Amino acid sequence: RAKAEARGSFRFFEPEMDARLQARRLLERDLREAVTAESFELHYQPIYDLNAERVCGFEALLRWNHPERGRISPAEFIPLAEELGLIIPLGEWVMRRACQEASRWPDGLKVAVNVSAVQFTSARLIGAVRDALAVSGLPGRRLELEITESVLVANPGTTTAMLHSLKGLGARVSMDDFGTGYSSLSYLRSFPFDKIKIDQSFVRDLGQADDSGFIVRAVIGLGASLGMTTTAEGVETEAQLARLRGEGCDEVQGYLFSRPVPSSEIPGLLRRWNGEARAIA
Ligand code: C2E
Ligand code: MG
Ligand code: MG
Ligand code: MG
């Protein structure tokens, strides 16, 4: 009887599993096609320097506008692209496009590009970054590469070597979403990062009941003592901004300043925040 019931329940779930599998296959097919056709776009979110009181750069964020489903979050399609091995060509497209677009911005503005763990451990990464810089003419010092903690844990030895190679091209390297992974504060010391990005989950709680201000303070203190810049992500309120200023955070990024915008809106943002009158070619 138990067997019959089990079989019954299995049959009950079957159509649903089929539908999920089917949806995934379709998404896979569409993603492959989109990578081949390069039908993606980069949006840019300003990074605001609290010491200079101006926008010092933009983070490039990948956008996929699916023909039927509309906009799909990178949180959904990046893991799929990693599984399918598509993240290498896709990541190289992002690198080329971001460097090319940034090369038209006023000098001094940096572009931050997210690098997935799969890309980071690929032998092609250095060549791809070097090519993107050479073709665009963007000086390496204007490129920042954002890497998440998962990379460190997987392979600490090769991570250090890779970070040094990237820095050898003049680029800077940032630890993204710090605090969400497994690494401890002191672990960070062993890697030559230029910047720590404090994850938005810690910023969100600033000034709330379960204030995680002590974590933010510890990360900013560590950053200062290691000579690393600290950037707070996901800043949405004036109260959070005031706290971050008070703690001596160097840079902030979040909806309070701007959502990620298409490249065409960058001149307007720069006029608003930096008083840049200069047009971008
Ligand atoms: P991330 O690198 O930590 O990027 C920050 C994310 O926070 C972005 O989400 C951004 O839109 C969002 N955000 C910015 N300010 C605020 C705010 O004030 N409040 C809230 N709630 N969110 C804010 P997005 O664009 O959906 O990207 C999600 C993640 O997908 C990124 O997290 C990054 O890990 C990944 N990703 C995006 N573009 C790329 C890419 O080109 N390559 C790779 N490998 N990963 C990418
Ligand atoms: Mg990032
Ligand atoms: Mg982040
Ligand atoms: Mg994040």
Name a few traits of the molecule.
single chain, binds ligand C2E, 281 residues, 11 helices, eight-stranded mixed beta barrel
- List SSEs in N-to-C order: HEEEHHEHHEHHEEHHEHEEH
Give the averaged pLDDT, no decimals: 90
Distance between the termini: 74 Å
- Number of discrete helical segments: 11
- Topology, number of strands: 10
Bound molecules: ligand C2E, magnesium ion
Please bin the fraction of helical residues. Answer: 40-55%
CA-based gyration radius: 21 Å
Percent of residues in beta strands? 15-25%
Shape: globular
Structural class call reads alpha/beta
User: Which spans have pLDDT < 50 for at least 5 consecutive residues?
Assistant: none
Biggest sheet layout: 8 strands, mixed, barrel
User: What spatial order of strands do you see in the largest sheet?
Assistant: 1-2-4-5-6-7-8-9
Domain EAL: 24-274
Keywords: Membrane, Transmembrane, Transmembrane helix
Organism: Methylobacterium planeticum
Protein name: EAL domain-containing protein
Write structural notes for this entry.
Residues 24-274 form the EAL domain. This is EAL domain-containing protein. With 281 residues, this protein is of the alpha/beta class. Strand 1 and strand 2 (54-66) form a beta hairpin. An 8-stranded mixed beta barrel has the order 1-2-4-5-6-7-8-9, surrounded by 5 helices. The mean pLDDT is 90. It starts with a helix and ends in a 7-residue tail after the last helix. It is built from 11 helices and 10 strands. The site of one magnesium ion has 4 residues, from loops.
